[in-house]
Structure formats: C-alpha cells, structure tokens
Specification:
four-stranded antiparallel sheet; single chain; 7 strands; alpha+beta
C-alpha cells in the first residue's frame, strides 16, 4: 500500500496500521497532491494508471495485486508530478484493509470520500511495483501541493 498522508510514520493516524506493518520503504507516485481545508491530503492520479478498483473483498484484492501484470513504468504527460510517500507491506489483507478502508471512508459500491485503486508506485527512478492507494473520489478542494509532499 502507498501512503502519502496521515497514515505515514510520525503522522496522526500511523498507529492504525501498526498491528499489520511489516516493512516501509520510501516511494513515489505520479499524480497531483492537494491539502484539503479539513486538514488532510487528497491525491489524484491519471486514469491510465489505474490497474484495478478496490472491492469489498480484501483477500481478492490482495490476490489481484499479486497476479496483475507488471506496471507501466513511464509517467503520463500532462500537469502531473511526483508525490512522495511510503510503500508499506501489511501482513494480512483480510485484517488490515477493512479498518483502513473505514478510516479512508472507502465503501465499494457506495458514495465514498476516497477510492482504493491498484496503481504503479515507483521505488526507484526505473523500478515500479503495483500497490493499493487511496485517491480522492471527486475533484479535491484546497491548494495543490506542487512539491508533492504533505504536510505542506
């Protein structure tokens, strides 16, 4: 899973992922990062980078991530930029995804604040892997963080 906001180490809700956290490495994603007036970040990514939407079945989503083909390695042209974050490995999808989905207000098939999608995440300039990330379900409000880092 790619984290870019309040679930990252030293941020306000990092303890939510603590019971399942196995590993953390710095990573980047191609997108647009915003600082929402309510005090949290929101991310947009190019539609072309969405490999699959998240579902209500954590085990099926974990399997989909494992079986999906290698990600597209080049960024999409346009007004996009690198967003900094962490690629985390969580121990058990069935246990970890439901509370994180609830925290991110992701409800498959219903109106949600965020969507969980499978997308490329870069761990080096030339190496990407697929990971789940929460993106804004609608156009984010607030200023864009052009340096790609949150908090501003």
């Amino acid at each position: 899973m790619f984290l870019y906001g309040t679930l990252r180490k030293n941020e306000s809700h990092h303890d939510l992922i603590g019971p399942w956290l196995v590993d953390t490495v710095p990573a980047s994603i191609w997108g647009r990062l915003y600082h929402v007036p309510a005090g949290y970040p929101a991310l947009e990514i190019p539609e072309e980078h969405i490999v699959a939407p998240g579902s209500g079945s954590p085990d099926a989503d974990a399997e989909r991530a494992r079986r999906s083909p290698a990600p597209r390695l080049e960024p999409i042209d346009g007004d996009w930029g690198w967003v900094a974050g962490d690629l985390v490995t969580l121990s058990t999808a069935n246990a970890s995804l439901p509370p994180i989905d609830a925290y991110e207000d992701f409800h498959p098939g219903r109106v949600s604040l965020f969507k969980r999608v499978l997308t490329p995440v870069w761990v080096t300039a030339t190496s990407a892997t697929l990971a789940w990330v929460y993106i804004s379900a609608s156009k984010p409000e607030g200023p864009r963080l052009r340096d790609g880092a949150w908090p501003p």
